Amino acid sequence: MQYEAVIGLEIHSQLLTESKMFCGCSTRFGSEPNTQTCPVCIGMPGVLPVTNKKAVEYVIKTGLAVNCEISQHSRFARKNYFYPDLPKGYQISQYELPLCIGGYVDIYIDESSKRIGLTRIHLEEDAGKNIHEGAGSYSLVDLNRAGTPLMEIVTEPDIRSPREAVEFMKKLRAILRYLGVCDGNMEQGSLRCDANVSVRPVGQKEFGVKTEIKNMNSFRFIEKALEYEIKRQIKLVQSGERIIQETRLWDSQKGVTESMRSKEEAHDYRYFPEPDLVPVDADSAWINDIKAGLVELPDEKRNRFINKYNLPVHDSDLLTSEKAMSEWFEEGVRLGGEPKALSNWIMSELMKFLNEENKSIEECPLKIEGLIGLLRLIDTNVISGKIAKTVFEEMYKTGKDAETIVKEKGLVQITDEGAIEKAVDEAIAGNPKEAERFKAGDEKLLGFFVGQIMKATKGKANPQIVNQLLKKKLSP
Ligand code: ADP
Ligand code: ZN
Ligand code: MG
């Protein structure tokens, strides 16, 4: 029997507001423990929370970007549970009236698209952090993160494979970063994802019992954890056992998911409306204002790149995955770069160098003007495409412009036919057997001769002229 996976994601993203959700404390990451706290976020009795308007705006902005219906009237609820990183004994969240309802995100896999439905988006506050370090028989609590605005996005169970889950997360991360509402840093935990997974025989309508997986802090771990969990469930079902509904933790060291706790139900949390906060009334004028301020989103930009610049889908996807990268590219086009040539250089050389140093385009030492200068030298036949790679590396490392490097290193392309002819003659004279075989029809040897000539000219001979002359001289 064939089985298929059913997956729904719950994504938490920390919003990029200056201050916390219900108090004025800073949300900055990495400060000394417990230095960004106040009576409100450490849960002193008698304090009153005040809603952060910016956080509400960010959630509405996100909702508009992913096609949700924005609730004109929503409210906060108390979600009661006990854990040391939650000083109040409850988390302020939203329950029956979330800020955004429905919506969807389109993902692209192998040039076909799939629509993943969203259930809701709501606003809540983050908890603090328990630190289980050191030898003592105690744990420490850092409440700097307690009360940080957290946006929770819940998908419908529309995802069918680990690959789709990863593509969804990549797209969502791109959207959040375009909007500037979340930095999308999965390692630091500002974007976190829990995955609900079940399996069922292909063709069956009803869903199977699901488990929830936590602790996957990278795209790769999401994929690995889901692959593992789907296999585990299929094995159980095939041997006639039942899946237990529970929360499981991904252990990236062991590469397995392990049972953490039994699943809690909504009634365990004793939700009730937060009595200390007024409901959120988002009037249509405000919503329209936010809508008017929306930037061009990854999908629109991708489609525009395909149409306007005639770029392949693959190029457009890659160039628009980061807003700053897409802007870098478009600046290059404005400066006269041919779109496809520019895209090739960005996708191959530039991304290779950036990835090697784990740098973003904002941190790129090479300026777009520099790359355009390099393209110009190729276009005008001053250097060959091959030499250009050497120049590119030098530009990236030294920040010098292409022309200077070409002059300093004497890399100007040889286009003088006489000089090239000499190199061609020498290559033929030095390899008489290969020349005979070529004349007898073994045309694969053309590459061999080109290689010899490039070696002799240190890669500087104009490849078109080399090819022409070789063919002329070696024709039977
Ligand atoms: P719960 O009541 O357990 O919190 P929800 O219905 O609220 O479950 O759904 C939580 C998440 O789990 C959503 O992302 C949803 O798409 C997903 N989900 C629900 N049922 C299943 C299932 N049988 N298999 C996989 N995912 C599911
Ligand atoms: Zn505070
Ligand atoms: Mg639920």
Cα(first) to Cα(last) distance is 64 Å
Structural class: alpha+beta
Hetero groups bound? adenosine-5'-diphosphate, zinc ion, magnesium ion
Give the total of domains.
3
3D shape: elongated
Strand percentage: 15-25%
How would you sum up the major sheet?
10 strands, mixed
- How many β strands by DSSP? 17
Q: What this model shows, in words?
A:
The structure is a single chain. The protein has three domains: 287 residues, no CATH class; 114 residues, no CATH class; 58 residues, Arc Repressor Mutant, subunit A (Orthogonal Bundle). The protein is 40% helix and 19% strand. Helix 5 crosses helix 6. The longest helix has 20 residues. The termini are far apart. The site of adenosine-5'-diphosphate has 15 residues, from strand 1, strand 11 and strand 12.
Give a short summary of the structure.
The chain is an alpha+beta fold and 476 residues long. 40% of the residues lie in helices and 19% in strands. The structure holds adenosine-5'-diphosphate, zinc ion (ZN) and magnesium ion.
